[in-house]
Amino acid sequence: MNQDVTSTINSNLSITDSSLQDPITVAIPPPLTPEQVPEVKQLAEQLQHQQLLDILPTTDDKPLPLKQLPESLSALALDGDTIEALGLELDTLAIEDITTQQSLTEQDFDVDWGQSIDDACLEQFINQGFVVLDNVYQPKALLALQAESGFIDYRDAKLTEGVRLSNIRGDRIRWITKHFFAGYYYLQSINELAHLFNRLFFAGIRHSEAHYACYPPGFGYKWHSDNPVGRDERVISAVFYLNDEWTIEDGGALSLIDMQNEQHQLLPKANRLVIFDSNLQHQVEIAHRQRYSIATWLRRDDAVFIPEP
Known about the structure:
- The chain has helices spanning 3-13, 23-26, 37-46, 50-53, 80-86, 90-93, 113-116, 119-128, 139-149, 181-201; strands at 58-59, 62-63, 130-133, 155-156, 172-175, 207-215, 221-224, 234-241, 254-257, 263-266, 273-277, 282-284, 291-299.
- By secondary structure, the chain is an alpha+beta fold.
- It has 2 domains: 3-30 and 32-97, no CATH class; 106-299, Jelly Rolls (Sandwich), CATH 2.60.120.
- The strands form 3 sheets. A 7-stranded antiparallel β-sheet has the order 3-11-8-13-6-5-4. A 4-stranded antiparallel β-sheet has the order 7-12-9-10, with no helix packed on it. Strands 1-2 form a two-stranded antiparallel sheet.
- The longest helix is centred in the middle third of the chain and has 21 residues, at 181-201.
- It is globular.
- The two termini are 29 Å apart.
- 33% of the residues are buried.
């Protein structure tokens, strides 16, 4: 295995200062059933050992992309010496029985937005300009998004002027395209949400866009609006959160000033979607552990090509 491949694997599997719940730390191939998660997380931690890194399957000396991960963890072909060195017990891990790649379909991301956004939510959105939805997606879809976020080559995010100022905006991002299969299904689901807003508010939304975002510890995003001065292409903003077991001590809250000029702090808990008017002022508080999310916008202009940052 060449040095570039080893570095890539290390970047995805090495322990950080953040909790083991962080998706980039666990880096579980999607999608898994909830019953499989504890066993696979245990195995993911063991993958830090160099002996396992050397036997990860590759194609032309490059790591296999998510769609090509082995159908069974038995494909890692652990020999007796490796198992003994790592202290693994096959009977406990049941490696032969764990399926790492099951079919993921667009239906796994189905959400009845009309039911999720009930009359109370609509009234809050009209009066305050934002609404919070919890437990949005099925566990299978959530886990796929968490895992995909851990295999991404993130790029430094920049401000509107194309300048990188980490003291203002410290996240690293990657725009979602059809090449991100879980993220792309997420976007299709968000398009259905856009249809709902068009029916209810004649919002004129024509397309959606989104990117994965990672905030390292010690970084945030200062107060801003998603529509720069003199522009109004973004109608609705939404942020979907990916971190499990997030607490107030972890920082990274979304602070938002609503239409009544009241400030709210919203925790970035996994499977939570915060939807708000794109003109509202908001900021990401300093995170104290790695923070993962999907930033999303529903726009009224034509779809445009988004160059990588």
